[in-house]
Every structure is written in structure tokens, then in C-alpha cells.
Here is the input.
Amino acid sequence: MSNISLSGNLNFLNLGELFQIFGTNSSTGVLKIKSKYSQEPGLMYFVKGNIVDASAGTKRGIDAAYALFGWTEGEFEFYQEEVKAKNIIQKSRMEITLDALRMIDDGQIEKLGPVSFAKNLQNAQVKSLLFP
Here is the structure.
């Protein structure tokens, strides 16, 4: 990867805001997202301000893009460079952002963060009620 064009913390600029910046600037390059809660970074590929591909662990494409919206803590770096990734994501930036935020609210996207023992206990209690 070439020189970093933009870097920061997801607590300050979230993915929706970054999508807006890249769209406004018609940016082409790779967004690398690092979290202390993931061994591998997440990657998003942009061409002329539009996301064309993404990867997060074993997820690829739109599933990876949605998963990365759950990474609310971490650092990002944007490398302005030519992108050779195929255009496998067909949704607009706004559609992805709105869908992802709704999916987070509905619990369909897992937030990546510290382990919550209270949440695990609650899930175990629900399962014990459903599957005695």
C-alpha cells in the first residue's frame, strides 16, 4: 500500500461519515480498519467514491461491508491508490449505510468490542428457557 491519505479513530469519524467523505471527493483507494478485537484488519475498496468490494475475516463483499459497520472502536487508514478489486458490491454508499445502521439497531450486525459477560449470561438464560 502507498502513502496514507487519511487516518483516524472510528470514535471520531464512523464508517458512514467516511463513506460521505470518499463520495464527495470521488476517492479511489483502500480503507484499512484495525480493531484490537480482531486479529485481521477489515478492508474496503473504493473506486471514484463508491465501495466496490470489502473483506472482514472470512466475509467478503456486501456481508463484509455490513460487518465492518459493527466495528465502532478502532483505527482507520485510507490509502489513495489504484484499486484492482472487482466491482462485486452493487449498492450505493447511502443504501449500504442506512441498511447497516438499521441492521445494527435490529441486532443483525454484531458490534465488535469487549466481551460482555452479562450479554452471554442473558443469552444462556434465554436458551435455557427455549430449550429446557
Observations:
- Residues 120 and 129 are 14 Å apart (CA to CA).
- The first strand starts at residue 4 and ends at 9.
